[in-house]
Amino acid sequence: MTVEVLYFAWVREGVGRGQEHVDPPVEVVSVADLIDWLGHEVLRDKTKLRAAIDQQFVPLDAPIAGAREVAIFPPVTGG
Length: 79
Description:
Helices cover 19% and strands 27% of the residues. The chain has two helices and five strands. Strands 2-1-5-3-4 form a five-stranded mixed β-sheet. The termini are far apart. 14% of the residues are buried.
């Protein structure tokens, strides 16, 4: 299963790119598993990360089965 992973804000800066296509192994079943598998240093502290699957906000324990796109970004703030 190939997934497009998108990175935003300081996550993008830390990873060094805005997107990548990956083919995670079958044991990678959730967003959190994907983050761990990707292994980027900037993604180590998951408490500072949020995610979306196919443009829908999801918790990090959400399954990625069937996902075309996973976005990883810092918490959104605003007024």
